[in-house]
Amino acid sequence: MRRNKCGSATIAAGLLAAGLCFTPPGATKTQAKDSLKDPAWIDKDWTQWTEKDCYNVLMKSPWSHVDNYAFESHHKMVVSGSYMTLVQLRSALPIRQAALRRLQLDKRYDKMNAEKRRAFDQLHAHDLDPSDHILVYIENWGSAEEGALRPRYTALILSDCRVVLPTKTKAVKYAPESFSTLQNEYEYAFPRTIAGEPIPPSGDSFLIVDLGGFLVFDAKTHQVALKSFRDSGQQYNFKISDLMYKGKPEY
Q1: Mean pLDDT of the chain, nearest integer
Q2: Which residues of 104-119 are buried (b: 16+ CB within 10 A; e: fewer)?
C-alpha cells in the first residue's frame, strides 16, 4: 500500500476529501506479501494446483494485497487484538481459477467418477468466463477484541488523477445493522472502459484501488447509499507488469 501523486487535495477537485488516518491509533501494520519461490501461477497448470497453491494465488499473488494490524497492550506488551484486510482483483483469471480449483479440492473432484465430474463441470461451466467489469473484492476480518474494520466506499484512481467509481457495490457478507461483526466482504464492479478508453489507460503503470469513507446504508432498502467519494488515504497499488498471466495482463 502506498500513495501515488494524486493526493487528497487533487482528488478533492469536484469531490469531497478527508484526511483520515490509515493505520488506527495503537495499531501496528504489516503486509503479508512474502516472496514465493516457483509461484504456482507460473510453473503449474491450474488444474494441478494444491490447496496451498490456491491459498498462495488468492492471498500472496500479484492480484492480492493483505494488510495485518495488531494492537499491543501497553502494560504486558502482548497482542490484545488484531484484524486483517484483503484487497483482491477477483475478475483476474488466476484468481477465478484458484477459487474454482479450491472448490474442486473441497468436493474431491479428482476422485469423482465420470458422472459426478460431468455434473460438477456443468454446474460451474461459467466460473472462468471473463467478466465485463473489473471486480475488486475486499474482505475484512477482526478479532473478538477489536472486531473487523468497517467496509468503505471504493474507487479506481487513474494516473491523470481521474476517479472511477463502481457501477455496483455488492455485499457478499455483511449485516449493516451490526458494525461489531468479525467479518465483512464486499465486491465492487468497475467499468473496463470510460469514454471509449480502457481502464487503466494505456501507459498507466498501476491499477490503483483507493478506499474512501465508511459505507452508508439506506435505512429502508439496506442497500449501499449513493454518496460523494471521500478519499481516506488508504490506497492499494497493483503493478500492471506484475499482473501478466499467460502472456497478457489479468485484472
Answers
A1: 82
A2: beeeebeeeeeeeeee
